[in-house]
Design a protein that fits this description.
alpha+beta, Gyrase A, domain 2, five-stranded mixed sheet, membrane, Type II secretion system protein L, transport, transmembrane helix
Length: 387
Amino acid sequence: MALQYFRWDGADAWQWLERGALREGDTAAAASAAGGEPVGVVLAAPQVWVSAQTLPRLPAARLARAAMFALEDQLASDLDAVQVAVGKRRADGLTELAVIGRAQLDAALARLREAGLKVAGITPLAALLPVDAFTVLAEPDHLTARLGAQASLCGAPQQIGPLLEALAPPSLRWLQTPGGPPPPPGLGAQIIEVPAEQALCLAPTPASPDLLQGAYAPARPPGQWRPWRPAAVLAGLWLALLLAGGLLETARLGRQNAALRTAIGEEFTRLFPEEGRPVSLRAQAERRLKLLDRGARGGALPLLAVAARALPPGQILTALDYRDGALTLEFGLPDVAAVEALRTRLAAERAVKADLPMAVAEGGVVRTRLVLRPAPGASAVATQEEP
């Protein structure tokens, strides 16, 4: 019997298909619809994020550990405090990974068991989106964004939209469900209309990671393992033959990982010199995002929205900083005329005070620094142009 999948937002909103029709309800309604049968859960919650990495060919237990070390610089918590789920290796060599805090996963499983749901697997919704492009699934009051192989975002449109505008991806696939929000005007998105049950239509995909692995794997009856014993013996012999090659591959991966960490650290220090030596890149990046989040009350995100309107489309930033109510951006413009055009556009923004303290021609571009502050007496910075 095929496993039935339920979409869950991590709180109390569920969706499932019943005789081909989309149904919605709370946790109790979902448990009633499951009828005591094992179900698969498609999790659309900000607590879980996905990535794709190139990993060596190792046994499952060692592969999970290698995946944790590959993501070490992106983790804000200790390795023992997170669950890193490993999916299947894709045809392009990348392996899908999903990450969630163990405390959060424990709380979610306890709540589902209390409701009477028998969960056979939990797959992040972002992991079902294509890894080869920036893709957004726009559902009513919810956006799930897959940022290629690097990471994912999940949450309310008013939270995810400004982040997508700041990232300014060169191409964006926007999967639009009925009632879902449209893409921000500044993004050149390819809009594709999809049905309301798109999240359930995507599940399952062969490479998708299941969060219920390792210590969280569902228990199997003892009799189910008996047919696998001969295969396990053969697999053990095969793994013994490959052990030496695996050790050499692990050493090579360690050297490659060290070089990559150094390069990422140098780039982070170049963009954010005031952060000092990077210790935990994910934690420091989250601290930057928290500063921007607090800035939603003090002006950071609105100031960033003003900058997005004033800067040329596709402009690449070389540095960004927010402190003491001022947003500072550094970038390169093609010539002095572009600087003057930017100055003219900023002069039309009545709710901000804009300064261009630096515009230096160097290497064929004009290195420019822009400082934005809320204008004196302005209660908030406008988030869009007046008609």
